């Protein structure tokens, strides 16, 4: 596969790190400390609240609506009714004349984690007739963030993870489930931002992406290139996926998940990996193939079990090249090399690219530029100097840690109520930058170059988590504006955005003659996303909530789980009956099934199909 096929690669290690860091991550920036300005803002805010209460909430119609919802609390000593516990989307059913004030004073409209209050942005910074313009701007920003998420995962996180796995001597490297980047981080962000147990956005994205990949993506592969599937891997993946879906359905049905159940989702995936590795080991023993001491499970090895576990000849050749080949390089001025390193546009790709690709390169260059300034990349594919840049890597020692503390809202915190954290990190970073600069040279990477991969890993994880939070907040804003449930947003926008990379990559593999790789990814990838996308965030949530997490389940989530189970069961029946031949007829059936699923989901959202849980 080419460079673009790895756009969505992320691995379980990142999720574990997020689980460790999640309790301290609070991305709401508070940079204004001027007391006079703060007092003025508070006085204006109080006046706005009183005006909103007097002019809008005291209308008989709205007071009745609030009482129907049952979310009226006392507003302090004034004894006035407050909208603090009203759902943000409730203004659609109320005669509100000042939506901006409602949004600013309703707690449900605020964000728990993130930098921008998008609901306030569209309703307060734009006049009513300019609201569509605000929504278009936010949508373009949402697309930009999705691209930033993909670039961070592919160009910065994956190289760091490769270096870390090699330096630590990890025996098993699970790169195949790296496709779960958007799903896992978006799920963590969505569940972290969920209010009153409404995890519909996270569950909708996980289940919706599963339906999309197992029907649309798998169907496209079968239509593009019919083939014979490997029997045992196909049955194994579908059965494990079915077990995960039925377990999820059970959780939804009882509307609660405990810490043991959430941990069980993680352990089920660990068991799946053990089965995969053990099955391949037994298979090779039976075929009399040599088994090397190191096992590497990649996209190709999980997909094609007849390949050797490790390409030893390639490794020997790589080591030989690294140890014995000396390449003459033309002299490049250090500053010119620095500017080439931070250049966000690939010159070689630009020369060969068409108009669309060039537009894409220009569109993403701001985020690429910022990422290059903050995240060091150690790239072993660059056999000459492993992407070493003396000036840029020296700068990373200062810029990377500073970004990390400010992104996690630790920069302005004080040590002993006196010394701010940034004032400690800054001089330490400058000293490290000087040490790196004066102990290295421009043409050869230093011995400690691999250490930069650990810094790159940490900073890229923070970047991914920050971007995922913004993506989720924007989707929640669209749900408020258009009065769409989180489940529908999850199974459409978030699921499509997270799965478009799978569609492109797996279809490209099928066209190149590797349909088995693509079809295996259609089941192995969503299985990882579902098990860890539920296991990790809800493990964090259950421990925060005292051991259990109550779920606010709607009919949309039940429809999602039911259709996903139906598509898997039908594939489990049809494929074996057809002799494990992935035919075009099967692919067309899957495409039709997805269209029916979307129709039923929309009818459920609009209330045409209804029921009580």
From TrEMBL:
UniProt KW NADP keyword: no
Subcellular location(s) per record: Membrane
MF GO annotations: calcium:sodium antiporter activity
Origin species: Patella caerulea
One GO BP: intracellular calcium ion homeostasis
Entry superkingdom: Eukaryota
One GO location term (cellular component): membrane
Protein name as annotated: Sodium/calcium exchanger membrane region domain-containing protein
InterPro entries, alphabetized: CaCA_antiporter (IPR051359), NaCa_Exmemb (IPR004837), NCX_ion-bd_dom_sf (IPR044880)
Domain Sodium/calcium exchanger membrane region: start-end pairs: 140-277, 453-602
Bilayer topology term: Multi-pass membrane protein
UniProt keyword terms in alphabetical order: Antiport, Calcium, Calcium transport, Ion transport, Membrane, Signal, Transmembrane, Transmembrane helix, Transport
Stretch forming the signal peptide: 1-27
Main location as per UniProt: membrane
Transmembrane portions of the chain: 130-151, 163-181, 201-222, 234-253, 265-283, 418-438, 450-468, 474-496, 517-538, 558-579, 586-604
């Amino acid at each position: 596969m080419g460079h673009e096929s790895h756009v969505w690669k992320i691995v379980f290690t990142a999720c574990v790190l997020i689980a460790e860091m999640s309790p301290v991550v609070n991305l709401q920036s508070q940079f204004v400390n001027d007391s006079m300005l703060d007092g003025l803002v508070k006085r204006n805010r109080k006046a706005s609240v009183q005006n909103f209460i007097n002019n809008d909430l005291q209308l008989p119609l709205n007071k009745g609506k609030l009482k129907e919802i049952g979310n009226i609390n006392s507003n302090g000593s004034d004894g006035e009714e407050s909208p603090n516990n009203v759902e943000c989307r409730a203004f659609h059913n109320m005669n509100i004349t000042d939506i901006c004030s409602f949004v600013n004073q309703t707690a449900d409209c605020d964000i728990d984690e993130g930098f921008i209050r998008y609901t306030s942005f569209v309703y307060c910074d734009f006049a009513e007739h300019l609201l569509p313009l605000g929504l278009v701007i936010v949508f373009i920003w949402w697309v930009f963030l999705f691209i930033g998420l993909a670039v961070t995962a592919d160009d910065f996180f994956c190289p760091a993870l490769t270096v870390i796995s090699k330096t630590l001597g990890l025996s098993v490297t699970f790169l195949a489930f790296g496709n779960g980047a958007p799903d896992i981080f978006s799920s963590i962000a969505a569940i972290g931002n969920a209010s009153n147990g409404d995890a519909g956005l996270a569950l909708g994205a996980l289940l919706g992406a599963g339906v999309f990949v197992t029907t649309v993506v798998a169907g496209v592969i079968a239509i593009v290139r019919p083939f014979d599937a490997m029997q045992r891997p196909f049955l194994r993946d579908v059965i494990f996926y079915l077990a995960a879906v039925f377990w999820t359905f059970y959780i939804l049905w009882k509307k609660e998940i405990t810490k043991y159940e959430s941990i069980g989702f993680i352990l089920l995936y660990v068991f799946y990996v053990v089965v995969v590795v053990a099955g391949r080991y037994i298979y090779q023993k039976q075929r009399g193939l040599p088994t090397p001491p190191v096992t590497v499970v990649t996209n190709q090895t999980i997909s094609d079990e007849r390949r050797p576990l490790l390409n030893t000849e390639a490794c020997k050749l790589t080591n030989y090249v690294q140890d014995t080949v000396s390449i003459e390089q033309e002299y490049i001025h250090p500053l010119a090399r620095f500017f080439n390193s931070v250049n966000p546009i690939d010159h070689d790709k630009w020369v060969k690219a068409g108009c669309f690709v060039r537009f894409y390169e220009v569109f993403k260059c701001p985020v690429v530029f910022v990422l290059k300034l903050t995240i060091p990349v150690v790239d072993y594919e660059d056999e000459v100097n492993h992407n070493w840049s003396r000036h840029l890597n020296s700068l990373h020692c200062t810029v990377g840690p500073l970004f990390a503390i400010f992104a996690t809202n630790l920069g302005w915190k004080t040590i002993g109520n006196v010394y701010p954290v940034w004032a400690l990190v800054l001089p330490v970073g400058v000293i490290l930058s000087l040490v790196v600069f004066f102990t290295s040279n421009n043409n050869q990477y230093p011995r400690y170059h691999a250490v930069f991969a650990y810094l790159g890993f940490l900073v890229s994880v923070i970047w991914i988590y920050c971007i995922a939070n913004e993506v989720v907040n924007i989707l929640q804003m669209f749900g408020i504006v258009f009065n769409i449930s989180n489940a529908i947003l999850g199974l459409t926008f978030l699921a499509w955005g997270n799965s478009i990379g799978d569609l492109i990559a797996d279809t490209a593999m099928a066209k190149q003659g590797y349909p088995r790789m693509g079809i295996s990814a259609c089941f192995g990838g969503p299985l990882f996303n579902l098990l860890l996308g539920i296991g990790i965030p809800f493990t964090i949530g259950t421990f925060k909530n005292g051991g259990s997490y109550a779920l606010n389940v709607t009919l949309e989530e039940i429809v999602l789980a039911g259709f996903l189970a139906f598509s898997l069961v039908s594939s489990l029946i049809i494929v074996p009956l057809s002799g494990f031949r992935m035919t075009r007829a099967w692919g067309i059936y899957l495409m039709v099934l997805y269209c029916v699923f979307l129709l039923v989901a929309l009818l459920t959202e609009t209330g045409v199909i209804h029921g009580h849980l």
